[in-house]
Amino acid sequence: MSSSDCEDRIHLQKLNFIYSALNNGWSIKKNKDTFIFSKKHENRREVFNDDYLTKFVLDNSTLAHK
C-alpha cells in the first residue's frame, strides 16, 4: 500500500467517524487540528471515563446504525 493510499484510507476513516457521530446526535466543531465533540446531557457538562470513550469510538466507527 502506497503512502498516498494509506493517507486516503485514514481520511475516509475520519470522515466515516465524523458522519456516524453526527448521525448519533453529536455536534462537532474543529479548532485548528482538533475536533471537539459535544452532546447535550440534560444541559450538564460531563467528563467521561475511559469505558465511555471506548464505547463512543466503537459506536461511531461504523456506518451501520441501529
Count of DSSP strands: 2
Strand order within the widest sheet? 1-2
Order of helices and strands: HEEH
Q: Rg to the nearest angstrom?
A: 14 Å
Helical residue percent?
40-55%
Number of domains: 1
Averaged pLDDT: 82
End-to-end Cα distance, whole Å, is 33 Å
Largest sheet features = 2 strands, antiparallel
Number of helices: 2
Anisotropy-based shape: elongated
The unreliable regions are none
As a percent range, the share of strand residues is: 15-25%
Strand pairing plus helix content: what structural class?
A: alpha+beta
What secondary-structure arrangement, pairings included, does this model have?
Layout (H helix, E strand, L loop, with lengths): L2 H21 L3 E5 L2 E5 L11 H10 L7
Provide a compact summary of the structure.
This protein has 66 residues and is an alpha+beta fold. It has helices at 3-23, 50-59, and strands spanning 27-31, 34-38.
Please tell me about this protein's structure.
The protein is an alpha+beta fold and 66 residues long. The chain has one domain. 47% of the residues lie in helices and 15% in strands. The chain contains two helices and two strands, in the order αββα. The chain has helices spanning 3-23, 50-59, and strands at 27-31, 34-38. A two-stranded antiparallel ribbon has the order 1-2. A hairpin with a 2-residue loop joins β1 and β2. The termini are far apart.
List keywords for this structure.
15% strand; two-stranded antiparallel ribbon; 47% helix; 66 residues; alpha+beta; elongated; 2 helices; single chain
